[in-house]
Amino acid sequence: MGLIYAPERLEDGIEALGNEPLFQAILEQAGSPRFRRRRNGFPTLLHIILEQQVSIDAAAAMHRRLVSLCQPLEPGPFLALDDATLRSCGFSRQKAAYGRGLAEAVVSGRLDFAALAQADDAAALATLVALKGIGRWSAEIYLIFALGRADIWPAADLGLQLAVADLMALPARPSEPALRQIGERWQPWRSVAACLFWQSYLHARKRAAPVLAPELYAAEA
User: Fold this and answer.
1) What's the pLDDT tens digit per position in 43-96?
2) Cα separation, 203 vs 167, whole angstroms
3) Domains, the chain
């Protein structure tokens, strides 16, 4: 029984990209990326909302407090939490509104995670960004890590921007539009390329891949 890593067909993508000197260097120095796949569902998308504009560690701490007060972490019980409880978990007023909007979308059927998993990349992205509080970065992270999509390029991600600037010897951190253009060359494996760059970013800073709560991860194969 092995762990499930994101995105799907990770090894195929590494093989396809591995002949490029840029990625050869990453693989030799930092090894293959091993970012665990997350479950497709409400808790994972809520956790990505918590990750917005805060560190991964801070978001994980908020999630732990929330889980201790909301069992199970599902839309119905989440909607029953009052403002004070959400504040005690670290939710800002804005993130509380986003979380409740997400929960309401699931309860009403406007967001169907099973259907989302069957949608193509463009349709899945459009469904997610239609939700208040889910911007393109959040949607793209969800597509890579919860839906396992292999050709997503989250160009607004700070870590990705910094890693590309370092490894490609750019004069400055690329803007989101500039990075989107750079990433076009790695289709149809842009998610794999992103994971390789993130692997290099973490290795250069002597950091490991983030560890989330066990219940957020997809079941082992």
Assistant:
1) 999 999 999 988 888 999 999 999 999 999 999 999 999 999 999 999 999 999
2) 12
3) 10-34+151-216 (1.10.1670.40), 42-145 (1.10.340.30)
